[in-house]
Amino acid sequence: MTTHSHPGSLIVVHGSMFAGKTEYLIARLRQAALHGQRVKAFKHAIDNRYDPTHLVTHTQDRFDAIPVPDADAVLTQAGDAEVIAIDEGQFFRNELVPIVEKLLDRGVTVLVAGISHDAWGRPFEPMPRLIAMADEVVPRESPCRVCGEPSPYTQRMTPVNTLHMVGGLDDYEPRCRAHFTPLPGPPEKR
Ligand SMILES: [Zn+2]
After folding, report:
1. Is pLDDT at 90 greater than 50 in this prediction?
2. Distance between start and end Cα atoms, the chain
């Protein structure tokens, strides 16, 4: 699939909310650590829903993570890590793309998890760009809360008052195409 010549490899985990993306990241990090690789996980500082210094799943499993204010900080704090995981990639916006490229050029294995569609149902950058660069794409979909079909969309259930899709169990639901209703009004300026 890949046409680039990076020595590292990029694994992108994408899908709706509550689809087990963070669980998948943690499993891959633990597996790499078991094989003696130096691993590091990053999360955006805006994502402080459960715990600012850990990746935390919706079932409360956790893994040490470094909170960073932007994508540049991932690069400056990457150190000698051989495997780097970045959770909620959509929070970093398109600035994440050149940072991932630099890590790949260094030979790092990069894992990025993120939401594939925003609350308007549009592709959620930078995930589509990262998918296009990826050596391995891992789609994760959780069952639609209405009908149980696989759901690529994430339905906003409460009023939007931030610029980001930061939310907990009550704010969003996974929905299939038939049961997804985009947020009303024009998309927020992002
Ligand atoms: Zn449905």
Report:
1. yes
2. 31
**pLDDT confidence of 53, banded at 50, 70, 90?**
confident
- CA of residue 115 to ligand 1 center, whole Å: 18
Q: DSSP readout, 96-113? A: HHHHHHHHHHTT-EEEEE
Distance from Cα 117 to the centre of ligand 1, integer Å: 16
Do strands 150-151 and 153-156 pair parallel, antiparallel, or not at all (unpaired)? Answer: unpaired
CA of 121 to the centre of ligand 1 (A): 14
Cα-to-centroid distance, 149 and ligand 1 (Å): 6
Are the C-beta atoms of residues 63 and 69 closer than 8 Å to each other? no
Q: What domains does the chain contain, in order, with CATH numbers?
A: 9-141 (3.40.50.300)
Neighbouring residues of the ion ligand 1, judged by CB less than 5 Å = 144, 146-147, 149, 176, 179
Cα of 144 from ligand 1 centre, angstroms: 5
Active site residue 88: yes
Which entry of 23, 82, 88, 141 is annotated as an active-site residue? 88
Going 19 to 9 to 95 to 85, the CA torsion angle's sign is positive
Report DSSP letters for 64-95, one per residue.
E-EEESSHHHHHHT-TT-SEEEESSGGGGGGG
The predicted-structure confidence for 1-45, as pLDDT tens digits, reads as follows 444 557 899 999 999 888 899 999 999 999 999 999 999 999 999
